[in-house]
Amino acid sequence: MSAAMDTESTYSGYSHYSGHSKKAHRQGRDRHKSPRSKDGSRSEKSVTIQTPPAEPLLGNDASRAEEGQDDNWGETTTAITGTSEHSISQEDIARISKDLEDSVGLDCKRYLGLTVAAVLGLLVFLTPIAFILLPQILWRDDLEPCGTVCEGLFISVAFKLLILLIGTWALFFRQPKADLPRVFVFRALLLVLIFLFVFSYWLFYGVRILDSKDTNYQGIVQYAVSLVDALLFIHYLAIVLLELRQLQPMFTVKVVRSTDGEARYYSLGHLSIQRAALVVLENYYRDFTVYNPALLTASKSRAAKHMAGLKVYNVDGPGNNASGQSRAMIAAAARRRDSSHNELYYEEADHERRVKKRRARLVVAVEEAFTHIKRLQAEEQQKAPGEMMDPREAAQAIFPSMARALQKYLRTTRQQQYHSMESILQHLSFCITNNMTPKAFLERYLNPGPTLQYDRDRWFSKQWTLVSEEAVTSGLQDGVVFVLKCLDFSLVVNVKKIPFIKLSEEFIDPKSHKFVLRLQSETSV
């Protein structure tokens, strides 16, 4: 019980460690004393003000604590939990209010488009029925009798309208995947074409049939059948323009994430820039590993430390005899810069060693926990059916034995902000319910997964901005570059056209593969 409480307190927030805070306090006290030199010179006049780097809000505390952690940090530190995770400024408030206004405008535009499409679709389906019913209502006594052919046309109209209704539902009535900045050109053209088509049919119907009160009812029904046939052909045209045209690959796009340089390649067909951006984002959430800003803090701090070693200040002016000292400082800084690759090498080697060690500890702990749960399941089978353990209770029972090793590994690999204790318990109970192995349970934590694997509040990228020099409704072309920006990073997309491939054939004579094997009459036995 105590182990479970310790684990819950550890996962309840971002931790600050007292041992490191004391060390930071002593360093800060020494830093305030450092401007005073031993010889009483005027070095205290040299003040350097550095603005804090623009790093992500999450993962900073964990990365700073990781630099000075040892393997026994759990026994020598005190965990203090808090409720604040993010800070917000006036610029953030203004940006949030602007995003809310934009979202309201997008919702209005989306509902307006859906309303127009629904009204037009209702008009399309009611028009053939109205063509058939209006003569029966207005001048029924003057109509010629409907024969067998006319009654057969009723069945034809009914089934064609049913087919058209199902095809329209399958093609157009889908849940929208995204809000695009501009209208879909082909869909708008189809709506305009359908409107003009139905309007022209109504105009002809009003002038030639309603005004003259045509008595040839079979001809009126045949006119309604021709309308339904034309609507079916327009639906076929919509399938070609909206679905089939983009299937053949014509372009290859390279997508690069601006922060860590991770890249993927995709093949696209004839698409507009905004629809190509939508396809790229759909593949991004599936193929790219989740964006982890904590992995970038180490490289940023290392680069800042090396750049700080190159700063030299001459406070006393050019007339002083400190030129030799300045040259010595420049030479020392150059030597330090030349040896930076050694520091990087040993730092990465030490990090890999710690990751491998904590990974081995985690694997052993999880295997022992799953062995324990199998033993518990064997014991529960011997009990009464009413005393069987729930998978959630089993997960809570074995979780404390692996919690410490799992937390250490997640902190070392800087993944702790993506896995809460509740999500780990849910995944563990899921693995127990489906009788999964320890390797299946560890797969989520040993290797960073795609963005869709994590909760939506961990994505760091929900709203995107498309930046393009070309119009977003124009089609893809060779050499087009556009950028998809979110709050913390951006995706740079470079479009290249697939080259024309000329394939030739070379004929090989079948007789060229034949050969003759001649054996000598005298052979050694």
In short:
It comes from Melanocharis versteri (Fan-tailed berrypecker). The protein has 525 residues and is of the alpha+beta class. Helix content is 57%, strand content 6%.
Structure, described:
Residues 19-35 have a biased composition (Basic residues). By secondary structure, the chain is an alpha+beta fold. Among the domains are: 106-246, no CATH class; 251-292 and 459-497. 57% of the residues lie in helices and 6% in strands. The chain has 15 helices and seven strands. It has a five-stranded antiparallel β-sheet with strand order 4-3-7-6-5, covered by helices on one side. Strands 1-2 form a two-stranded antiparallel ribbon.
Q: Could you tell me the radius of gyration in angstroms?
A: 36 Å
Given the C-alpha coordinates, what overall shape results? extended
How far the N terminus sits from the C terminus, by CA atoms, comes to 86 Å
Structural class: alpha+beta
Summarize model confidence as the mean pLDDT: 75
Major beta sheet, strand line-up: 4-3-7-6-5
InterPro entries: VANGL
Protein name: VANG1 protein
GO cellular component, one term: plasma membrane
Keywords: Cell membrane, Membrane, Transmembrane, Transmembrane helix
Comma- or semicolon-separated keywords:
alpha+beta, two-stranded antiparallel ribbon, 15 helices, 7 strands, about 55% helix, VANG1 protein, transmembrane, cell membrane, VANGL
Topology:
Layout lengths: L1 H10 L4 E2 H16 L26 H8 L5 H4 L2 E2 L9 H49 L9 H24 L13 H26 L6 H28 L6 E7 L5 E6 L4 H15 L6 H15 L14 H16 L1 H42 L9 H22 L8 H13 L4 H9 L18 E4 L12 E5 L4 E8 L28
Antiparallel strand pairs: 1-2, 3-4, 3-7, 5-6, 6-7
